[in-house]
Amino acid sequence: MLVIGTIIAWHQYRSNREAADQAARHNRGPSTYKPGEADFNNYQVPPDAPRYLFIPKLSIRAMVKPLGLTAKNQIAAPNNVFDAGWYTGSAKPGQPGAMLIDGHVSSWTAHGIFYNLKKLQPGDKLQIQRGDGTTFTYKVVKSRVYDAAQVDMKAALSPVTTGKPGLNLITCDGSVIKGTSEFDKRLVVFTEQL
Known about the structure:
By secondary structure, the protein is of the alpha+beta class. It has 3 helices and 8 strands; from the N terminus they run ααββββββαββ. The chain has helices at 2-28, 37-42, 153-156, and strands at 50-55, 60-67, 84-87, 98-103, 125-130, 135-147, 166-176, 183-193. The longest helix is centred in the first third of the chain and has 27 residues, at 2-28. The termini are far apart.
């Protein structure tokens, strides 16, 4: 009986610990639920909005979710580390100006969609597909790392090449600031439409 009681107590402890760990992860930031093929294929947006982001070099194939501003007047981040986020105050695909796409580098428990973004080099290609199926191709022009508090948002929201629509990607970089879940740097990758 002692052995059975010990086993039951151990299972209850493990279940409680797993529930506590899951709750703690939830409170630490974005979801780490990896969308399945059905989630990806069934994702819908308006015809002129960005639906999918593809970066072949990094094996990125992500849904693009619309994002606004936070209460602190900062661009919101996606709710899931595997999604990209389009700042709705930036351009739409195929329009003049530049789109700004945000994505997580990581959470406490998983690598985010933009974990390897720093590996992109000038000339690398990426694509945005709109809700109507139209696909636009871009090439990387340059990357720039900023201190988190000094990101040049005017540049991030502008085409890198005058007269060509742009797509700029932004993510966290650097080190986690002690006592927070925030990084001390931001990486911006600037691309132009081909």
